[in-house]
């Protein structure tokens, strides 16, 4: 984010524009506090591109939340626009994921020509629909840090003969979990996209996948490993299981369940331990959430270069649309060129929200990831020499094991 702020500020200042950094996202604008801004000069931002985090901070404040009991249900949106008007802002750069992109598009539409908005897509979840499979900025840095952490956990797992269940961020899509798991050579990675979309994901099924992977490792004489899971699996739990796991479900300003409160890693670790305990075996399984640790790391060179292009592109786009009819758009880089996508062109026509880019489980890339995971497969059930040790580790006969776990491989 700092790299985008730096590039946009330098680009705007070189055009002769004044630049204001709005603190804490939309939070103060909604409340009408126009004092929470800071002028940004080239000197202020000249070296921040190598730093993680954001010098103007962030928040989850949402200007698009409607208040049906108010005289003006959209007062937050209108208050935000009024604050921008008082500040004399005619061009706005927003940085964020699908929620911020939606808020930016609504601001641009409501401004009716008085404001031009350039949105820079940012999310370590990598779930915005950028053309050509281009990653969203921050994803590659987060994956790099995640791989280092998982590699450390794998070394510890080998040393102590234990298991780690690692949950990585990815509310709507499993790109980050899969990218970390594949690059680190994790034992197994689970993402929501691999399960049928029209069905909930039962905790019992998740435990079965993890348990059989562990049994297979035990049969191979390697009773340790690291499993990586996408946090978005938690949103696919049946309502009764979600409510049982989270009796008091908390939601953020955008209406999303706070998945950090679910502690999916610890929940699954307990259920797996219970499974082994029931058959008289002891296993050490630790849950580990690596969410916030990935978010504000110093950017790797790929993301620095990428975000400098995006920040410059945002200002270049705003210069071209200031006197036109286009209210705003999302900045993308395609084949080395800045290509703005007009607001609405990347939204779901039914919901009006930004489309989500899911992991394509039919792709060659995903197939390669699956090939190098340790998990129960058809050959394990067909080959008696492979099935026998796995069933023995479970304390079942081969046929009983097939009957119990065969559904996992179809």
Describe what you observe in this structure.
The chain is an alpha/beta fold. The chain folds into three domains: 2-136 and 299-342, Rossmann fold (3-Layer(aba) Sandwich); 141-296 and 360-375, Rossmann fold (3-Layer(aba) Sandwich), CATH 3.40.50.460; 376-410, no CATH class. It is built from 15 helices and ten strands. The strands form three sheets. It has a four-stranded mixed beta sheet with strand order 3-4-9-10, sandwiched between helices.
What are its keywords?
410 residues, Rossmann fold, elongated, 10 strands, alpha/beta
| CATH level-two architecture of the largest domain | 3-Layer(aba) Sandwich
> How many β-strand stretches?
10
* Dominant shape: elongated
Tell me what portion of residues adopts beta-strand conformation.
Answer: 5-15%
Oligomerization state: single chain
The radius of gyration computed from the alpha-carbon positions, rounded to a whole number of angstroms, is 24 Å
What structural category arises from helix and sheet content? Answer: alpha/beta
Q: Main β-sheet, in a few words?
A: 4 strands, mixed
- Reading the helices and strands in chain order gives HEHEHHEHEHEHEHEHHEHEEHHHH
- The strand order across the widest sheet is 3-4-9-10
Number of domains: 3
> First CA to last CA: what distance?
44 Å
User: Residue share in helices?
Assistant: 40-55%
Low-confidence stretches: none
State the CATH topology of the largest domain: Rossmann fold
